[in-house]
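In response to the reviewer comment on reproducibility (Comment 2.3), we provide here a single inverse folding case reported in full, input and output, so that an independent group could reproduce the run without further information from us. The structure tokens appear first.
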């Protein structure tokens, strides 16, 4: 079938018309609503506020120094306690038994020491007696030696006298024999013979006498020498007694030293068990308030196991947690204003006392704010608001964090002009907050797209609607 040229032309014209309509529908961009924020007066001072809790500056976990069964806990949470007050007690029967056993052991050790000291006194007496006997024996030995010398001298004199007497006998005998011959020859008288006879008898009698004296002198020498030997034996025996007494004293000194060491050891043991007996009482080391109880009566606790916690009285602080941006500005001694939720009309002053060196699992840092004058209104566990104010070197304005648009390395925001069209405005982010941004480079009363900045392009026409996001300025 043939198609007429006119019909073909009409078909082409219709097709071109449809294509043109389609292009117009693509190029016509709809006006979309956009959340906007009206910039306000520039800020010269920044205030950041955090919620926290009133806590004690120092909390002490109290524990027994010995283990045992808890028979009494006399305090509960909230009880005010004084330093030195007994807060809990353990069963002390075993401790008392140990004290009694150690005391008995000490008495036995003292008895052993006294016995050893008494024995030492007796040994020292025996040593003195042995030394006296030795001195006497040594003196007797000297006397015996002297007696021997005297006896030997007397014996020598007696032996000499025997020689003289023997010579006299020999002479008298010769004279008697010569006279007897002369009488037989008629040359001597009987009277001369009688005289010689008498001389001989007298010399013989004298010889017997001096011989007897010499024998007696020799016997005296032997007796004196025997006395020396006997006295030497006495000296040796006395020296043995002295040596034995010294050895006994040395042994007793060792016993005394050992007994004294035993006494010292049992005294220390008794002191230890007495201390352990005292450790069955849990005593508060500070004035304060009980904030936790961890053990009930009847439970068995180990040494060092926390039984309860006491918050030290009078030293309160507010503990807050800050984010990664704010922690850069936190400094020790930074002033703070503190308000209690229970009484928001009263403001207390404080300053940062401590900053945690590391973040927790939520990437926040613990900051402790000391209260200058806690007064009586502060109670443990109260909720408080801590505000930090800081003068800014550059005037800034606050924006929601979703208003930020990043063009390469340049921060910017989208402004909406009087014709409700967008245009890009470079800015500088002075500080990132937990709830927004502080930026410079914007004048007051500008309209900024506050959400969806990444979906906007230059010259886009929008329908401004008020920002309804969660971020709010806290200045």
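Designed residues, in position order:
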């Amino acid at each position: 079938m043939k198609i007429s040229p006119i019909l073909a032309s009409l078909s082409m014209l219709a097709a071109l018309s449809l294509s043109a309509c389609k292009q117009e529908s693509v190029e016509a961009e709809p006006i979309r609503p956009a959340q906007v924020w009206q910039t306000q007066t520039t800020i010269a001072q920044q205030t950041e506020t955090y919620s926290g809790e009133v806590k004690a500056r120092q909390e002490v976990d109290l524990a027994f120094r010995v283990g045992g069964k808890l028979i009494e806990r006399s305090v509960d949470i909230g009880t005010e306690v004084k330093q030195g007050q007994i807060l809990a007690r353990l069963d002390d029967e075993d401790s008392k038994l140990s004290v009694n056993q150690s005391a008995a052991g000490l008495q036995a050790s003292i008895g052993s020491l006294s016995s050893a000291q008494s024995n030492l006194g007796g040994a020292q007496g025996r040593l003195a007696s042995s030394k006296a006997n030795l001195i006497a024996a040594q003196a007797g030995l000297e006397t015996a030696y002297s007696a021997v010398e005297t006896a030997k001298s007397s014996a020598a004199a007696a032996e000499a006298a025997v020689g003289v007497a023997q010579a006299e006998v020999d002479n008298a005998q010769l004279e008697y024999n010569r006279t007897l011959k002369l009488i037989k020859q008629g040359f001597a008288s009987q009277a001369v013979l009688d005289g010689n006879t008498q001389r001989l008898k007298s010399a013989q009698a004298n010889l017997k006498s001096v011989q007897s004296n010499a024998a007696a002198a020799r016997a005296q020498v032997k007796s004196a020498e025997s006395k020396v030997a006997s006295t030497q034996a006495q000296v040796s025996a006395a020296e043995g007694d002295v040596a034995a007494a010294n050895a006994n004293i040395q042994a007793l000194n060792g016993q005394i030293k050992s007994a004294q060491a035993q006494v010292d050891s049992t005294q220390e043991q008794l002191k230890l068990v007495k201390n352990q007996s005292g450790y069955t009482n849990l005593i508060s080391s500070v004035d304060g308030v009980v904030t936790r109880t961890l053990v009930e009566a009847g439970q068995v606790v180990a040494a060092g196991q926390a039984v309860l916690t006491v918050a030290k009285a009078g030293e309160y602080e507010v503990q807050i947690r800050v984010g990664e941006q704010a922690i850069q500005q936190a400094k020790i001694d930074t002033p703070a204003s503190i308000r209690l939720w229970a009484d928001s009309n009263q403001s207390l002053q404080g300053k940062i006392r401590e900053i945690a060196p590391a973040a927790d699992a939520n990437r926040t840092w613990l900051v402790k704010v000391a209260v200058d004058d806690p007064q009586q209104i502060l109670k443990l566990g109260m909720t408080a608001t801590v505000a930090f104010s800081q003068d800014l070197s550059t005037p800034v304005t606050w924006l929601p964090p979703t208003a930020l648009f990043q063009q390469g390395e340049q921060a910017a925001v989208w402004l909406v002009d009087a014709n409700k069209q967008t245009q890009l405005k470079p800015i500088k982010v002075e500080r990132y907050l937990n709830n927004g941004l502080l930026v410079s480079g914007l004048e007051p009363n500008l309209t900024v797209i506050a959400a969806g900045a990444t979906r906007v392009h230059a010259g886009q026409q929008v329908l401004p609607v008020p920002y309804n996001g969660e971020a709010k300025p806290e200045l």
